[in-house]
Amino acid sequence: MFMRYARQMRLAIQEGGSTDPKFNTQLRQIIDQALKNKMPNSTIQNVIKKYSDPNQTKLIKFVQDYKALGKVHMVAVFLTENVAGTKQNLQPIMKKFPGAGVTDCRSLFDERGIVQATAPEKMNSLEETSLEEACTEDAIECGAEEIEIADFESKIVNFMCNPVEIERFKRELTQKGYSIDFAGIVFIPKQTITLSPSEIETMERLKAKMKEIEGVEEIFDNVEYPEKSA
């Protein structure tokens, strides 16, 4: 996970043009997320120092579609400085799994922006229905498409928005007192499929292997996974 945060900080520095969190909102928010997940501050500072040179090789964000088991469609998001090398590193993995490989399935997914935020302290005493109503009102004012109470006890709310509006949406939520926990783009399947237990196990192994490749950030698929018991 720390390597993922390091890549995201590198991209934030690259896009924001500054290594100072005071002047680079995207970098500051990623640092906050990393600290919440116990990434040492010394490691964070080393990452910032390492990627402070504006002349270094740029990170490239790209998206690739894959298939597996003849019926599963996946959208993988990458952050890498070597697109061709990353694709090549994935080829041996695909060959080891039945029906796995590159495809074109983007039309089967909706691309959405998601901002996960902790509600303002003034909402801490609200019941769940009242919390949802208050957050919905803020969402409408900020231009969100929909909301979801992800964790009532922690007052964590997911806001869905147009992907191109993420940065503006984060700023407006922050102005309303929300603490941004995560922001990014997700690919939501228009239709899901069910798999047998053995097929689900195969998919989990495939995605785990894919995530071992440096630069793999997210993998979305059209599988409806059963809820895991507590």
Automatic annotation (TrEMBL):
**Which parts of the sequence belong to the TACO1/YebC-like N-terminal domain?**
1-52
- Residues annotated as domain TACO1/YebC-like second and third: 68-223
Q: Which Gene3D superfamilies match?
A: 1.10.10.200, 3.30.70.980
GO cellular component labels: mitochondrion
Family, per the entry?
A: Belongs to the TACO1 family.
PANTHER family referenced in this protein's UniProt entry, alphabetically: TRANSLATIONAL ACTIVATOR OF CYTOCHROME C OXIDASE 1
Name of the protein in question: CSON004979 protein
- State the species of origin: Culicoides sonorensis (Biting midge)
**What gene, per UniProt, encodes this protein?**
CSON004979
